[in-house]
Write the structure tokens for this entry.
Amino acid sequence: MAERREQTARDEVLTRIGQVVMLHHGGDREEARSRFLDLWAEIGEDGDPLHRCTLAHYLADTQDDPADELAWDLRALAAARELPEGHPRSVPGFFPSLHLNLAADYAKLGRTEAARTQLGHARAAADVLPDDGYGAGVRAAIGRLELRLGQDGPPGGGAWGPPRQRPS
């Protein structure tokens, strides 16, 4: 009974995160950032690693400053690493996307070598991705960023980085 209540509470937090993601995707970035930060304060720095990983991963998308985006993506990766490999709640499929997002963050900040390092981690972690639309999308985004990092700068002076990929 206690285990079921704990699972329900975990699912409720993930549902709340998902609701804010929908708000963000609906175009209300500021409100989404505010609600994400409220959730972060509620969950806390020592909260459930899956919640912190998921929340930080999405919270990064709402940042205006690339350095802030990087900080949230680093928090997401750190939280993901807290879940033991093979644990039922571990998120191995998150790692390619987490590293890809870090690579894009570093590229935006002009830190090309750090971006290439993270891109290498993303490529190595991509073996766990399923052979579906999500896996293909992440692999394609890795390839696009690899091409961009092989150049002197972003094509046409545009922003660095692929669209952020999320597990389905």
In short: Residues 2-25 form the longest helix (24 residues). Residues 1-91 form one domain. Residues 152-168 have pLDDT under 50 and may be disordered. The two ends are 29 Å apart (CA to CA).
